[in-house]
Amino acid sequence: MEITPLTMPEASVKSSAFTSKINPDLSEIDWVYVCALFDKVNWRVRVPEEIEKAFRTSSWTIFIYKDEQLIGFGRTIDDGRYYAMLGDIVVDPDFQGNGLGKMMVTTLNGLLENYHFVTLTAAPGKGDFYKSLGWKKQTTAFIWPQGPKQLRQHTEPEE
User: Fold this and answer.
1) Torsion sign, CA atoms 108, 109, 110, 112
2) How many CA atoms lie within 13 A of 47 on its CB side?
3) Which residue among 24, 40, 65, 159 is least crowded, i.e. fewest CB within 10 A of its CB?
4) What CA–CA distance (Å, rounded) separates 124 from 133?
């Protein structure tokens, strides 16, 4: 596990108490609280045992803390060489606007530097955030909707 203090311009950080942990010991993570943060950002309900398993099978994980309190996390899913994606990029809404999402996305993307394709699925309304970081909208990506909400939020209307 690597623990690093966040180094960001003072103007974008309201407190110097933010730290990140890359690939920490996942047995020390409060998965019930992780699920509560998913709920707080209005994402689909997660089950603690299932999200822990998902993070354990991820290549890279990052967790952000203010003092000792977990306030954000993210992960990568990949095949080890060609295809990778960022997933579950979550920042507690009480701490959004501090550059933490940008730091997590930039850090995780940097760990996938030599992959042929790196993708992500943005939460509804967050596309401009990713565009501001240099991400481009794909013209060839498709999704198999897992229900009406995904169909509504992540697909273009039928012509």
Assistant:
1) positive
2) 3
3) 159
4) 17
Three-state DSSP state, 110: helix
Cβ–Cβ < 8 Å for 44, 51:
no
Q: What is the pLDDT along the chain (159 residues), one digit of tens a residue?
A: 554 444 433 333 344 679 999 999 999 999 999 999 999 999 889 999 999 999 999 999 999 999 999 999 999 999 999 999 999 999 999 999 999 999 999 999 999 999 999 999 888 889 999 999 999 988 888 888 888 888 888 888 877
Q: Are 23 and 35 in contact (CB under 8 A)?
A: no
Measure the N-to-C terminal CA separation of the chain; round to a whole number of Å: 49
Q: Quote the pTM value.
A: 0.83
Report H helices in 6-133.
31-40, 48-56, 100-111, 127-132
